[in-house]
Amino acid sequence: MIILTFLAWSFLCHLVIRDQDKRRARFSKNASLFCGFIIRSFNIRLTVKNKPKDGDKFLLVSNHMGFIDILLMCSIFPMLFITSNEMRETPFLGLLTEMGGCMYVERRSRTRIIEEMKSMTDALQKGFRIVLYPEATSHNGECVLPFKRTLMMAASHAGVPIQPAVVNFRKVNGEEWTMKYRDSLCWYGDIPFATSLWKSLTLRSVDAEIEFLEQIHTSPEDDRGLVADKAHKMISEKFVPVKGAPVPEPAPAEMETT
What we know:
The protein is of the alpha/beta class and 258 residues long. It contains ten helices and eight strands. Strands 1, 2, 3, 4, 5, 6, 7 and 8 form an eight-stranded mixed beta sheet that branches. Strand 6 and strand 7 form a beta hairpin.
C-alpha cells in the first residue's frame, strides 16, 4: 500500500510539475518521505552518526549491499541516486527509480562516461545531493568491493566535497548479523528481486547504522585513483562484515582506463 501510494503521488507530481529540476526535487522529497514509512513498516531501527547539516551539498559515496541500504540512506534526507540504465529497463523497478528521481548511467558503455559525469556535475551545481555507489554493484556483505573512479570526479568539477558514508547492519531479529541472515539483507549476484524482497519481509527486526565520515575535498587536477582509494579505505575501515564470512583475499588493483 505504501509503494502504491508513493507511485500515485509521484505520478501526480509528474503530471503537474513541468520543470525537470523542480520535478526531480519533488520526486526526491517524496522518495525520502515514503522510504521513512517503509523502513518503519519493516521494523528497521536506524542510527545515524555525524549527520551532515541540512544545507550541506555533496556527492555521497557509500558501500552498497542491496535495496535495504538504499531505503535507509534515502530516508535521511532527499537525494538523487545514481543507478544503471539496466535498472531503468527492469519492469516495476524501473518505474520506482524513475518516480524516485534517479539519474541513470550506462555502465555497459565507457564512451558515454564524460557526458554522464557532466550531467552529475550540473545537478550538483544546481544544489542537488547525489548518491553514488562506486562499487557499481551490490555486494554480499563480506567486504567493500573496489571503487570505480571516474564518476567520483563530478564532485571536484562541481566544487562540492565527496561525503563518504558507511552502512552497517548490527542486529537481525535481535541476534548478531551472521551468515544466517546474510541473504535476507543483501541483494547480490543472480538472486531474483522477488526472492530477496520476500526474505527481507520475513524478518522481525533489523538494527542498522549509517555513519557519515570526514569529507574529502578535491580539485579537477587530483589523481582520480588516489581519491577513489582514499574514500574506499575510509569506508572499508568502518565497515563491519557479516559474521562468519570467509576472510577475503586482498583485492587486485583496479584496472580502469576511463
